[in-house]
Design brief:
4 helices, globular, single chain
């Protein structure tokens, strides 16, 4: 089913890699400093301190439709393209299912910052 593939695809950017280049399953969706094209990929687990734990289902659906975060900031880089050319075109029921999945995974505290602290 394509929703399973979509959720698995999130892991390609939002999960840190092991020394051998594989996904670190113990840090599933906890964010990575070494995302595609050198971009940071934030923690999207439901951790309230370092992830998206304070986001509601409505917040997540809105974000996947528009690229706007709950605080009003917009998404940049590759994720904006993923939303514009992908998620924004999905039915709202599918986006709700993706939001439910993200809210159901284990929360992992992992502050993702670049080498300069940003």
């Amino acid at each position: 089913h394509y929703l399973v593939r979509a959720a698995a695809h999130c892991g390609e950017c939002h999960t840190p890699r092991t020394l051998t280049g594989g996904l670190d399953g113990s840090m599933w969706l906890a964010g990575s400093r070494e995302g595609p094209e050198g971009e940071l990929a934030p923690n999207i687990t439901p951790d309230r301190k370092t992830g998206i734990g304070d986001w509601t289902t409505r917040d997540l659906v809105w974000y996947l439709q528009t690229g706007f975060k709950p605080e009003g900031d917009d998404t940049q880089g590759l994720m904006s393209e993923v939303i514009e050319h992908g998620y924004a075109n999905l039915p709202v029921e599918d986006l709700r299912a993706m939001a439910a999945y993200l809210k159901s995974i284990p929360a992992i505290e992992n502050e993702v910052k670049g080498g300069d602290g940003s």
